[in-house]
Design a protein that fits this description.
Chain lengths: 200, 827
């Protein structure tokens, strides 16, 4: 996740670094306020003024401002990551306790390896053959669950051709650890070869 | 009568039986509060050992310490025990022990119910513990998602232990919540209006209301999943019209309020302790009450944030994301009010203050990572990784364990009357604090590096070895710290010397009596005129001991206290408590037989157990009341008040009202489930709807309309001193007719094992039938009471209680029948 290899994962990683910085600043601020409460000499304030400073100012004002900014950034990012693109490559993913099966429009299914073209938007339609699983390729995007009777869609994109590790991320009983798959991102030629069935 | 004579006289009335016997028949909130706490901390130890095993397993890659199956039991039981057998009961124990003392009364509203709740917890907990010892513990993760936990993928008894054992334990949470609500609203010291109530009372009141509305969805979910497992009713099977997402909704509808149910009482401890530790008063009492109430409402609007990865449409998710960040605002208000309080006063670094500082640092970090995961895209990445595990431990350890340790050190001198001897606590705090942060800061990093939660091992080349080892080493440092706290407390209990009364100089009433507190709490009840009565009147303890307050002269050896008006605190009635009895433990044991028969699938015992519970409940209620009017009673300070059984709304009415709130939430969750399946689940509409059968619908609704009218006639005749037997009998007949119609509905339901529609309808009818049966028994009871002369113009409280139940059952009956017939009526 900290080593993103696609636009979705990169946006989320940026979000993380911003939130980490902000959180650290707030933590330091609160710690300083706590430490200052122990200082020996201090002026006496009346309750009404203190309530205004601490509760209305810090408790309400400060927290609402920070949260509103963060929330709008988060919602905008989320909307971007789920916004429909013009012509995504469509693939399907079906999880079972035995492993993952991936399907394509133009050729046979593959087992435990998802082939995608690099630098193109890919929409994965995810479902399950038995219980709840989750589709997660940390370096490419966030995760989404595979739920009986429902189809969930996730968009992924890889910047460069290569192999990316994927895994199920919803506990599924014995064998959970080994419910893993890989994503093989091809360059344009390699993708056409794959679709023609020349690579497995 | 001097103070010592009064003490002897009161103690003879209130004391629990000596020795072993007293453990089992006590109904004293002081005893039961301590029993709750000791049992809860025992389970804290058990779950702590499990967590040590988890960290031992993960310390090195490819560890052969625990097999995958055993590891699954370890993490499931660690979460389950911490949540259900430690956190909630510890809160109940704290509240049960402290609330009557803080509010200046002699016991909670229903002493026998406190005992029943404790024994349900003890027996249910023992069931869970047995599963662990037998190696049959639940293993599907503490939130038990089907279909993994359904009959097909988890055929063993493990999951049944969870569903049945936890439901059994939850009876104690519901019991405690009902009686804490009633006690806080109706059993405070005279003169203590709501705005003069100690802030802790507000927190516990809100928490109790949240338990009443938060636990029913989980109880419903557990019942549905157990019905699916035991009888094949397919609520969660997509191929038969069910939906596994329904479980997630029901579970998190409980599960998120649960976090605040755990946090709020801890926050109540902080709001109580911080002003005392800083030698001042709480900044912004009104603001804090408002933010607690706001928190309670908001916490019910954000359960979906546990389900951001289930494919809910983005705008829906954005709404819940907003709600989830919004919940940080009232939390921030409290946080800054506490820091402001410290600025206002002069904080002193006593032992409780150390844990309060530990709370601040830990909880702020937990809150900040909480805001992070409320931001949806980030959650898509870290969901179900060690990052989430780390976040929730920051919130729960920071927001619960540190405050409760602070509270423990604060109130220990009250419980024991001693002062600390060796200063082990300070060392323990340093170990706990460094150990905790060492463990869970590291786990955040592991999550970001992609370590999923609940994996039992990992590869060397994953590069997680050093961080995992660090986390494990620090976790053992934390465990040593917690063990030192235990040793510190044991030394305190047995070796430490007697301490002064009220060592912290607090202003609340629990310190204004002897410590350890006497069996009757207060020799006479004070008249409260401010938020800090003990600070304002330092001679208050002497005045109460000398009998200058209310009820200083116990009548006829009765256990007495006062009931007050909810808002103003004006005394209204005298309450007479039942004395020590084995009835609660017997009833809990029979309840246990009921649950055990379900667990072991010996279903022929189940109806016998139900009859047993009903018979004991009958006896329970029969013991109350009288056959003669008592008239106004002298309560001291020249005041005369009626007995609560001679008022229109006794404590039983209030308790029923709050129980029905929980009950209505349960029913609402069931209707939500029905609507959810209908609209969201694949495989609807079902192959057949229920056929219309007019007599069933018409007779049922007519009976449901008649019963409330008849019970009102009964009440009016009792209040008017006329013969009330006839309308009471007729009300009973009406309720029986309603029960027959609902039973007919259940029998006509389309095959419930073929489609979730039939299954839901069966449960709906069953819910209505159960209520008709319970209300029928109540009407039978009332009829018998009327016949035996237990009611009169003055003694009119009992018919009013039955009226509540009749009204509720009538409403439920009409809704069940209408909803069931609606599809046929519309087509």
């Amino acid at each position: 996740m900290l080593d993103p290899a696609g636009p979705a994962a990169r946006e989320i990683a940026t979000l993380w670094w911003i939130m980490l910085g902000g959180s650290f600043a707030i933590l330091v601020f609160v710690t300083i306020l706590l430490a200052l409460s122990f200082r020996p000499d201090r002026r006496q304030h009346d309750d009404v003024r203190m309530e205004r400073t601490w509760i209305v100012g810090l408790g309400l004002g400060f927290s609402v401002a920070v949260l509103a900014a963060l929330l709008s950034y988060g919602v905008a990012t989320g909307a971007r990551l789920t916004a429909p693109s013009e012509t995504p490559v469509q693939v399907t993913a079906k999880a079972t306790l035995a492993g993952w099966t991936f399907g394509y429009d133009a050729r046979d299914d593959t087992e435990d390896v998802l082939h995608i073209p690099a630098r193109r938007d890919v929409e994965v339609a995810i479902t399950t053959g038995d219980i709840i699983h989750s589709f997660w390729v940390p370096r490419l995007a966030g995760k989404i669950d595979a739920i009986p009777g429902h189809v969930n869609r996730l968009r992924i994109e890889a910047d460069t051709p290569g192999v990316y590790q994927g895994r199920s991320a919803e506990y599924s009983g014995p064998g959970y650890l080994d419910l893993r798959f890989t994503v093989q991102a091809h360059d344009a030629d390699g993708w056409q070869e794959f679709l023609r069935g020349e690579t497995e | 009568m001097n103070a010592l004579q009064r003490h002897r006289k009161l103690d003879a009335i209130w004391a629990s039986d000596k020795g072993f016997r007293g453990w089992f028949n006590t109904v004293s909130h002081t005893d039961l509060g301590r029993m709750f706490l000791v049992t809860a901390f025992f389970y804290f130890g058990v779950a702590g050992v499990l967590s040590m095993l988890i960290r031992a397993q993960l310390a090195t890659p490819h560890s052969a310490w625990a097999s995958e199956e055993v590891y699954a039991q370890l993490f499931t039981m660690h979460g389950t025990i911490m949540m259900f057998l430690f956190a909630i009961p510890a809160i109940e124990g704290m509240a049960v022990y402290l609330i009557p003392k803080m509010l200046g009364t002699r016991d909670l509203a229903y002493p026998r119910l406190t005992a029943y709740g404790y024994w349900c917890y003890a027996f249910g907990g023992a069931m869970m513990l047995a599963s662990l010892v037998l190696g049959l513990a639940p293993d599907g993760g503490w939130f038990m998602y089907p279909p993994l936990t359904g009959g097909i993928h988890s055929p063993g008894i493990n999951t049944d232990f969870w569903l049945i054992g936890i439901t059994f334990v939850e009876i104690s949470a519901i019991c405690a919540a009902v009686e804490l609500c009633v006690s806080i609203l109706k059993f405070r010291a005279p003169g203590m209006s709501l705005d003069k109530m100690p802030i802790f009372g507000w927190y516990i009141l809100v928490t109790s209301l949240m338990i009443l509305t938060g636990f029913p969805p989980l109880i419903l979910g557990s019942i549905l999943l157990e019905l699916e497992r035991a009888f094949g009713l397919p609520f969660f099977q997509a191929e038969l019209g069910g939906d596994s997402l329904l479980w997630q909704h029901l579970f998190w509808l409980f599960g998120h309020p649960e976090v605040y149910i755990i946090f709020l009482p801890a926050a109540g401890i902080l709001s109580t302790l911080i002003p005392v530790m800083a030698r001042t008063t709480l900044l912004g009492y009104g603001w804090i009450v408002a933010s607690v109430v706001a928190l309670a409402f908001l916490s019910f609007g954000l359960w979906v944030h546990h389900m951001f990865t289930t494919g809910i449409p983005h705008m829906g998710v954005a709404f819940f994301s907003a709600a989830s960040t919004l919940v940080a605002v009232p939390t921030a208000v409290q946080l800054f009010a506490w820091i402001g309080t410290m600025w206002k006063g002069r904080p002193e670094l006593h032992m409780p203050m150390l844990h309060i500082l530990g709370f601040f640092i830990t909880f702020v970090i937990g809150g900040l990572t909480g805001v992070m995961v409320a931001i949806v895209p980030f959650d898509w990445q870290v969901h179900d990784t060690a990052f989430i595990t780390a976040h929730l431990h920051y919130v729960l350890f920071g927001g619960f364990v540190f405050p409760i340790l602070a509270g423990l050190y604060y109130w220990l001198p009250l419980v024991t009357g001693r002062k600390r001897f060796f200063k082990l606590g300070e060392t323990a705090f340093v170990l706990i604090f460094t150990g905790f942060h060492g463990t869970f800061l590291a786990m955040h990093v592991l999550g970001l590096l992609g370590q999923r939660r609940r994996i039992h091992t990992y590869d060397v080349d994953a590069g997680w070895t050093a961080i995992n080892l660090t986390a494990s080493v620090f976790s053992f440092i934390m465990a040593i710290g917690l063990a030192l706290v235990l040793i510190d407390i044991i030394i305190h209990l047995f070796i430490a010397v007697r301490g002064a009364r009220s060592p912290w100089g607090a202003g609340t009433l629990e310190w204004a009596t002897m410590s350890p507190p006497p069996s009757y709490n207060f020799a006479s009840l004070p008249h409260v005129t401010s938020r800090a009565p003990y600070t304002d009147n330092p001679t208050l303890p002497d005045e109460m001991a000398r009998g200058l307050g209310y009820l200083s002269d116990p009548q006829e050896g009765r256990r007495e206290t006062l009931m007050i008006d909810v808002t103003s605190g004006t005394p209204e009635a005298v309450v007479v408590y039942p004395a020590n009895t084995f009835l609660p433990i017997k009833m809990a044991a029979v309840t246990g037989v009921f649950f055990l028969s379900l667990l072991l699938k010996v279903y022929w015992i189940t109806p016998l157990a139900v009859i047993g519970v009903a018979a004991l409940a009958w006896r329970w209620a029969w013991q109350l009341g009288a056959r003669n009017d008592a008239g106004p009673q002298p309560v001291g300070r020249d005041m005369y008040l009626p007995l609560s059984s001679e008022t229109a709304k006794s404590q039983g009415w209030w308790g029923s009202a709050f129980l029905l709130v929980a009950n209505a939430t349960f029913f609402g969750s069931l209707l939500f489930g029905y609507a959810f399946l209908w609209t969201i689940a694949p495989g609807w509409p079902p192959p057949v709807w229920l056929d219309l059968w007019l007599p069933e619908l018409a007779f049922g609704i007519a009976a449901a309309l008649a019963a409330p009218i008849l019970i009102r006639m009964t009440c009016a005749r009792v209040a008017g001193g006329q013969a009330a037997a006839a309308p009471c009998t007729m009300a009973l007949v009406a309720v029986v007719v309603l029960a027959v119609c609902l039973a007919s509905l259940m029998l006509r339901t389309p095959d419930p094992s073929m489609h979730a529609y039939g299954a839901t309808l069966l449960v709906l009818g069953g819910y209505g039938f159960f209520h008709a049966a319970v209300t029928g028994v109540m009407l039978g009871f009332l009829r018998a009471r009327i016949a035996k002369g237990h009611t009169s113009q003055a003694r009119r409280a009992e018919p009013a209680i039955v009226r509540l139940w009749v009204d509720y059952t009538a409403a439920v009956g009409i809704l069940c029948l209408t909803i069931a017939h609606l599809p046929a009526l519309l087509t």
